[in-house]
Amino acid sequence: MPSYGRPLSFGANITPTSSTFDRPVRLALLSETLGYELVTFRDQPYNPALLDAWTLVAWVAARTERVHIAANVLALPLRPPAILARAAISLSLLSGGRFALGLGAGGAWDGIESMGGRRLTPGEGVQALEEAVAIIRSVWDAGEPTLVNITGDYYEISGARRGPLPPHPIPIWIGAHKPKMLRLIGRHADGWLPALSRATPEELTAGNALIDDTARAAGREPRAIRRLLNIEGSFDPAADAPLTGTSAQWTRQLAALALGGGFDTFLLTTDDADTIRQFAEEVVPAVRAAVEPQTGEPT
Fold first, then answer.
1. For the whole model, what pTM was predicted?
2. Who's near 15: CB < 8 A, 6+ residues apart?
3. What is the distance between the alpha carbons of residues 63 and 66, in angstroms, rounded to a whole number?
4. Angle between helices 53-63 and 81-95 (to 10 degrees)
5. 181: pLDDT confidence band, cut at 50, 70 and 90?
6. CA gap 81, 87 in Å, rounded
7. Which of 35, 40, 104, 234 pairs as cysteine with 73 (C-beta 3.0–4.6 A)?
8. How many CB atoms lie within 10 A of CB 110?
9. Angle between helices 53-63 and 22-33 (to 10 degrees)
10. Could you list the residue range(s) of the whole structural domain that residue 169 is in?
11. Considering the domain boundaries, does residue 95 fall inside one?
């Protein structure tokens, strides 16, 4: 799988802990200072150990100036899509276009159900997500004068007013690993957001190929779909596991994922300030230097 030729981006995926509620904010501010392009937070509204991701994203957007912000990813079964669409427009306006909408079909169904969400099968979750994406994009399409009227098996919108028009494009990134979700991404999404901890490099390559084939069948250009990857590891030279060891070892593995795996955005999952700093100062510039000459794209 060759690189798609997209410029590289790097971000931090930070745990939104409620017990130390100031730490994720401080780490987000540090990430911006160190030059990261993106900061994300997981969304588990049923987990009292975590801050509400949407509230935290909005707070961090107000505290920062340059870095982009997203949830990694929002639990759609607890987020009504039309309200989510309108809220995304508001946050894009207030942040100067620094917001991306990360979505997931759900998975922790006991927790979702405990908060009033509807328990769905995996197949039902995919269908509900597809309906939600259609609603969100319809609300964003303020250039269309008609009202939003969409009746699906999971969502029904009747006579909703569109807009306001997003001042900047709001990308929809979908967290997924299974084939049905990957095909949905190929048809409708702006980005794929899997986790390296949940897939082998071979499975990631196969996922990219399935997205590409589906995108082409839908008349889309695969290169237009951003490939993001959650990563985690340690700078322990004695460890023997993926993304462990020296900065040079990290660099070789991430360059391979960019050039051979097609990924253009790497999100470092950690709550350790020293790891965030070392990754930014030693790994990021080295990966850019290794990848840029081979893709022909400025990174």
1. 0.95
2. 24, 41, 42, 50, 271
3. 10
4. 10
5. very high
6. 10
7. 104
8. 8
9. 40
10. 9-295
11. yes
Quick: pLDDT tens for 85-128. Answer: 999 999 999 999 999 999 999 999 999 999 999 999 999 999 99
Would residue 58 count as lying in a domain? Answer: yes
CA distance 131 to 118: 15
Closest alpha carbon to 95 in 139, 39, 133: 39
Tokens 């964003």 correspond to 140
CATH of the domain at 219: 3.20.20.30
In which element (H, E) is residue 250 found? helix 247-259
Asked if residue 70 belongs to a domain, the reply is: yes
φ, ψ (nearest 5 deg) of residue 173: -110, 135
Please list, residue by residue across 113-125, b when 16 or more beta carbons sit within 10 angstroms of its beta carbon and e when fewer do. Answer: eeeebeebeeeeb
- From the list 225, 227, 217, the residue with the least C-alpha distance to 265 is 227
46-50, 115-119, 121-125, 164-168: segment of lowest average pLDDT: 164-168
User: Which amino acid belongs to residue 194?
Assistant: P
Per residue in 193-206, pLDDT (tens digit) is 999 999 999 999 99
Q: How many separate domains does the chain show?
A: 1
Residues 6 or more apart whose CB falls under 8 angstroms from that of 254 comprise: 231, 243, 266, 283, 287
Query: Distance (Å, rounded) from C-alpha 299 to C-alpha 262?
Result: 14
Let me know if residue 2 belongs to a domain.
no
- Output the pLDDT for position 296: 61
- In this predicted model, what pLDDT tens digit does every residue of 221-252 receive, in sequence order? 999 999 999 999 999 876 667 899 999 999 99
The torsion angles phi and psi of 69, rounded to 5 degrees, stand at -135, 145
Mean residue pLDDT of the chain comes to 94
User: Which two structure tokens, joined as six digits, stand for 18?
Assistant: 């409620």
Mean pLDDT of 264-283: 98
